[in-house]
Amino acid sequence: MFTGSLVNFSMLVSFLVLGSTSCLTFPFASSNQKTNNDLRTIQVCQNKDCCQRWSMSYEQLPEILQDLLPPDVRDSVQVETSSCLSNCGKGPNMAVKRVGSKGFFLNGITGPMILRDELEERMDIKIPSKLVAAVTVIEKAQKVSLSEKNRLYSSVIGVLNSDALLSSSCAHARALVFRAQARHEEERYEEAIEDALLATRVPGATVSVASLAWRTLADCYRSQGQVESAIQALRQRAIVDPSYKTKIEKEIAQIKSM
Fold first, then answer.
1. What would the pLDDT profile of 41-67 be if each residue is shown by its tens digit?
2. For the sheet containing 40-45, what is the strand order?
């Protein structure tokens, strides 16, 4: 239905809504009512074979899973990566665990539509069609011109930002970061900085998305010759994601020596 590189986001949302077969109601209470027994853990296999079976290019399955989960379930579902889950021929695989309950596997998760169906049918998590559309459009944006990337990311941001719930989703934060990167490449530095800063303030942003936002801010500031601001952005990245601390310390030392 959508064969061209120019994708109308609203049409895609309508298509996904009409194509959805789920009629589940949202099962979760507010976050301040959660207990340890409410927490469900989804372990995503990161074995090479499973990763190669995943169909999307812009992120792997754990990140797309975070993009699809609505903010309502943030306190109820924990996403983890895992070593091999011993179902290689059926991958990509996920294992779902819950305190006091028998766990189960989700197999053959090769794309976002299958992931949505499994989450709804096996875990009773209602996935908003707008989020499915968002990850689909972001994927399409990886394969088009720079100007078209901006248009597609703007469509995603506009739709998610206008939704009181989904404005705090990880997908919204990721679209802001990706548009910031595209605008940086176009030398639209002030707009890129604004997008990246907004991304850092989205409650649903994962560590990897927030880290990328601070990285993008540092790049924008350096492009403008704002060395101190770039250093501060790098330091914020190290706080958000300590795994980059050593690398960032070396980068800051290099910047200061220039």
1. 999 998 888 888 888 776 788 899 999
2. 77-82, 40-45, 94-98, 101-106
State the Cα–Cα distance between residues 105 and 94, nearest whole angstrom: 6
Q: Phi and psi at residue 45, in whole multiples of 5°?
A: -65, 130
And the tokens for 237? 């990245």
Q: How far apart are CA 168 and CA 20, in angstroms?
A: 23
Which residues in the chain land under pLDDT 70?
A: 1-37, 58
CA 167 → CA 71, 149, 181, 200, distances in Å?
9, 20, 20, 13
Instruction: State the DSSP code for 21.
Output: -
Torsion of CA 8, 11, 13, 18, to 10 degrees: -160
Helices (H), the chain: 9-19, 48-53, 61-68, 112-123, 129-141, 146-161, 170-185, 189-200, 207-223, 227-240, 245-257
